[in-house]
Amino acid sequence: MFRTIAITGFIATVVGVLLHFAVSKPKFDNVFGKDRPMKILDPLRICVFLMTLLFVEQKWNLVGALRKLVFLVALFCLVVLAITGFVPSVFYGVAIHGWWLFIHAIMAGVFAATMAALAVLWADSNRFDKNYLPWFNTILRRQPKSTLIPDEYELEIKICFWAIFVLMLPVILSAVVSMFKIFGTHGQVVLLDIHRYSTLFLTLLAIIYLYFAALNEMEKTAGR
Amino acid sequence: MNNGLKANTILLTVILAAAGIAYAAEETLVGDNPDGSRATPLHLIPMLAEPLPDEEPNQIYPKDNPALPFSTKATCGACHTYNIVTTGWHFNAVDSNVPAGRIGQPWILADATAVTQIPLSYRPWPGTFRPEQIGLTPMKFLDNFGRQMPGGGIGEMIDKSDSPEETLRANITGNLEINCLACHNTSPGQDMGSAAGYAIQVIRRNYRWAAAASSEFAYVTGETAKLPESYDFREPFVSSDSKAKPPVVEYDRSAFGHNDWVRFDISVNILKQRCYFCHSNVDIHDGATEKWLADEDIHLHAGLTCVDCHRNGFMHNITRGYEGEPNDNNNVLAAHSSCEGCHLNSDANTPAAGRFTAPVPKHAGIPPVHFEKLSCTACHSGPWPKNELVRTMTAQAHGIGVTGTNAKKWKDILPHLVYPVFAKAQDGLITPHKLFWPAYWAAKDGNNITPFDMETVKAATGKVIKRAALSEVKSWPDLKEEDIAKILTGLAENVEGEAKPVYIAAGKLYSLDKAGKLVSAEDKIAAPFMWPIAHDVRPAAQSLGIRRCEDCHSKDSPFFFGNIALDGPVQGQKGNIEMISLQEVNRTFEKWFAWSFVFRPYLKIVTLVCCAVIAGVLLLYALKALYFVARIVVGRES
């Protein structure tokens, strides 16, 4: 059951991202230059662009660099956790065990720590603004004083951000609580299911988050 | 003749006729289909002797001279179809059509003079040899193991032996019929192991008298060994040979009641003491084997008996109690007689858990993966694992409980059994086993290995191993490598074709190279022989993992890294193998995994703190959001 849902979820997310990417028509000319040679190499240019997003910019202060580094560590942990967690269950149809489990458990601790740090460091910059939903303001007959103009995908990014952190709670608790002598066999099975499904949704949200974040950066670059 | 006597005479006639019919043909008898009453029926019945061919059995009277031993086949078979009972698990090993089932304790022929301990079975269990492969005829097999067999099976094949001598002697010894009393007699006078009891009668080859000797109302003296072939057990024995003393059965006359019938204290509620005669185990701690040092299985202390779990109907297809047994046994209770059958039984359409007030285990904190990789017994059965295994003796292997074997005093007596060995079982689960290292002489042809018969072996070893070298405690003699070479040279004349003689001991295979020099190498053929154990089950409070994960997941855990000492007679062949080598588990991984448990408490703390931080941030911003929403709702925020 989980295997089917996971495969369906990953396929749907990837297809959704690709469809959105195709429909949203990013301004490649503005990002990579209108007169760039060999447009067939655009996918490669996108990859290079995405790689540059991982860099820590020199202009940042220490806190900014730290935020980015923590994010990169969390991202790395997420990738490792996703591989070690989903490969055995989705590709091989077996429960996570052996070295998969060993690496998974080690990375889980680091991931939890980096996510806690990210929550503290990034929460404030991910607050919602009143201008995100103009139609909602219209309904309330409000005239917000704020003149902030949100980025194109800012709302989606922030929704994903908070959803990811909400999901972090069942992800962590279901794993940690199972290590205590609290729940019996049935409880352990339920905890495992909670862990698997919450992790699945967290991973899918992380993919969407990263996609929108990348798209947002692309838009910003295009606008400069 | 009064009316009562008439009635009894008629009843006796009916019983005798039934016995005759039962002997002659298959027919449903009165005792084959019980009416379902839970009361124990009275067995006040005439004792019947083994009949002549094509004749009906005769009743035994106290004044008979010579007094004949009663035949269970005739006496019990008068009301219970004997041939159905013979299909039961305890008696059907010789039937090649019966599924072998999970590997069990084999018969182990241990002989210090032949530096041999070899697993034998009539069932095709992997790693065992058939007794006839080492020259054990039915009678010789019984000489070694009949003491703790309930009769039937090979015991009733004496007259069908391939050995003409044995078929001739079968007229004197009789067959070893199923001894119904061995299990069903509830009388405290049931004598299985004393100086004149069942086991001794089997050792004396008094097969026909063995069941009677075990009863509380008969005493048997004499033995068949020196009797001439003209001996007829029905006739008074007269001989000039003073050493020839035939078996004589002496009945307690007070046992004969009205009409000279005898009351058998028979019950289907088998006493655990009956099972224990053949299924006892005793651990040797510092040389002590006293039973008060060890507890019994927790189920027995809880008030259960062996047959509460190991059940059978009249077919006697007793359940052995392992998961997956329904594939091998058509007993309708096979699926419910395992650990899970009583304690879990979650798959049953009708809830069946909690039978016999079995507690449903909570297994708090145990990740479910353990139940995919371990048998229930891994955590719950046998002694608590330690770095060194426990040396143990069993009734079947060591004859404990039989007067004269005096096994208890010989803590080093062969075969050398150790446990608990946590190894992967046939069903793929890690299960505690008993283990010993086979040692035997064989002819090896390619991958085929055929042990030599014991007479050939003894002839060869007898020339090399001097009697003085044999330990008084019947343990291994000190066997030098040059001795092995000499014995193998002696055995070489007994092999044909491409085969060559080899000796197997303690995991190694010894053979002679072309130059006649002894070479040895580790070989799969020489692997230890193991069989899963289920008893004694410890209390839940003593199960593995009850304290912490490190009961098993620590870098020195006996469960994975306990030592199994190589055991054999070869001088200088010392060493150990690790338990994990029998588990098909990656040793490096288990070491690292065990090491990770050192940090697990910190992992728990760190992740819980992280969780608290994330929850705090979420709560903080949720409250902030709520604050602004509230202000907007009351119109104080635009």
Give your account of this protein's structure.
The complex is a heterodimer of chains A (224) and B (638). The mean pLDDT of chain A is 85. Helices cover 73% and strands 0% of the residues of chain A. Chain A is mainly alpha-helical and 224 residues long. Chain A has helices spanning 2-24, 28-32, 42-53, 62-91, 98-122, 134-139, 154-177, 185-223. Chain A is built from eight helices and no strands. Chain B has 638 residues and is α+β, with helices and mostly antiparallel strands. Among the domains of chain B are: 1-30; 599-638. Chain B has 20 helices and 18 strands. Chain B has a five-stranded antiparallel β-sheet with strand order 7-8-9-10-16. A five-stranded antiparallel β-sheet of chain B has the order 12-11-13-14-15. In chain B, helix 16 (454-462) crosses helix 17. Chain B is globular. The mean pLDDT of chain B is 89.
Query: Which structural class do you get from the secondary structure elements of chain B?
Result: alpha+beta
Q: What global shape of chain B is seen?
A: globular
Number of helices of chain A: 8
Got a strand count of chain B?
Answer: 18
Q: Let me know the largest β-sheet of chain B.
A: 5 strands, antiparallel
SSE run of chain A: HHHHHHHH
Number of helices of chain B: 20
Proportion in helices of chain B: 25-40%
User: Whole-Å distance between the termini of chain B?
Assistant: 121 Å
Largest sheet: number of strands, sense, barrel closure of chain A: none
- The helical percent of chain A reads over 70%
User: Would you tell me the overall average pLDDT of chain A?
Assistant: 85
DSSP strand (E) fraction of chain B?
A: 5-15%
Given helix and strand content, the structural type of chain A is mainly alpha
* C-alpha Rg of chain A (nearest Å): 20 Å
Number-wise, the strands of chain A total 0
Indicate the mean pLDDT of chain B. 89
| Multimerization state | heterodimer
Biggest sheet strand order of chain B reads 7-8-9-10-16
Overall shape of chain A: globular
Largest interface: A-B, 44 and 36 residues
